Amino acid sequence: MKGNWCWRESISLEFFSALSNETDQEALLALQNLITSPNNFLANNWTKTTSFCSWFGVTCSLKRPRVVALALPNLQLQGTISPSLANLSFLREPNLKNNLFHGGIPYGLGHLPRLRVIDIQNNQLKGNIPTSVFQHRRVQKISLAFNEFSGEMWKGPRYVPELKILSLRNNSLKGIIPPSVGNATKLMNFGLTGNRISGNLPNKFGNMSQLAFLSLIDNQLTGSIPAALFNISSLVGMSVSLNSLSGPLLLDEGNIVSNLETYSSNSRSYFNISSLKYIGFNLNNLSGRIPTTTGFHLPNLISLVLGGNQLEGEIPLFITNASNLKILDLAGNFLTGTIPTNLGNLHELQRLLLHSNQLTNEPTEHELRLFNSLVDCRMLRYLQVGSNPLNGVLPNSIGNVSSTIEILYIGDTHLNGLIPQRFLGKFVGVEDHIEGQVYATMDKKMYEHTIVHCSKDIEEVEWDFLDFGEKNLVASGYVDLICMLRIEADSTGGLDLSNFDLALA
Known about the structure:
This protein is α/β, with parallel strands linked by helices and 505 residues long. It has helices at residues 2-33, 41-45, 131-135, 370-374, 421-424; strands spanning 35-36, 58-60, 67-71, 78-80, 93-95, 100-103, 117-119, 124-127, 141-143, 148-149, 165-167, 174-176, 189-191, 196-199, 213-215, 220-221, 237-239, 262-264, 278-280, 303-305, 327-329, 351-353, 382-384, 393-394, 407-409, 416-419, 431-434, 437-443, 451-454, 494-496, 501-504. The protein has a domain at 432-495. It has a 14-stranded parallel beta sheet, with no helix packed on it. A 5-stranded mixed beta sheet has the order 1-4-6-8-10. The protein has a 3-stranded mixed beta sheet with strand order 2-3-5, with no helix packed on it. The longest helix has 32 residues, at 2-33. It is elongated.
């Protein structure tokens, strides 16, 4: 009797196993029927003549012939995602990223009990994201970035408790960030950049004790940043630029921890962090002053970008102690005072953008000593200090500024002085293409005697990047250099000297 029971149980298990195997196969074939692939390679590979566990992109369990992973990325697949995908009850990781799928996400996908990863980024999917996706108890990664999803984020009380990565950037999501997101206490990477999210940042963000990266750039967020967010010991990068967050720039407050490498916002920043690498608060409504205390120590800071705000006060001297700084952008604010004359300490500096402020020259100095210091910045590529009332004399040392200079903007500064020919010789490969003809070329073979070949009347030359303004340079004796006044966008460099009282040396 016992033997008969064991025999019947064995037959039953084999029957249900075969039925489950057939379910997986039929689910995959239903998916394939809605997909068009280049040269029909998927239809030719997924055939009933071979085991579905050997089909391209399919991974089965080692214990039983059940599909546990489906990897079909970067294949130019077109079509819709079949609801049959939800019948793969052992599926853990569907990866359909970087294809051309349209339509929506099957609602049943969020009900797969063993689901761990959903990666369908960079397709053409539309509609609402199924709420079942955000209710799953075991999913660790949801990546739906670079699609066309609309609607609002789910506002339910529970958010995927095991979720570590939530990437929804570059869609058309709207509404607010639901406070329940803060219940995803294991979340490490949260990306909503490039949507239409509005409202305030939830105070419950502070509950995400393992958060490392927070990216909310280019939305419609308002209000201030919750103070609790800066007590997260795991925070490495934060970027909320291009929003409407407001408040003073309180750079010397808070208790943010030393793990922070990137901080980008428009409410607070905490600079006294030895591991801090990237700070980007640009294009917001920041106000207040950058602290001038010299106690800050930023040995690892690489980029400080505060341009396009409403900051006031002076440029703090502690910035010149950031020996690894490559990008310094304070342009487009209301900064006053003088430009630090020891910026030459920043030997790694590649971009210095201080234009469009109210910066002045040292009252007791005749020459603009900034250029004397910048001679030591041998990697400098962009130098823009124009649209400031500098009111000084351009020193001869400008001719010794790095040969790597690509863009120089010192227009609208009320400077005067001489421009060494050897400096103009740094701008190489200049050609003027108008209606398919080359009208002016510059030969950079000799620094001291830059040779310019010109075959066009001065009055007809269009002025672009190399702009001397409306000054009369004829008296200087270097009329031929005006041939350089037009530079195409694909040239290697530009020079703006408009509103600059000068002669050519």
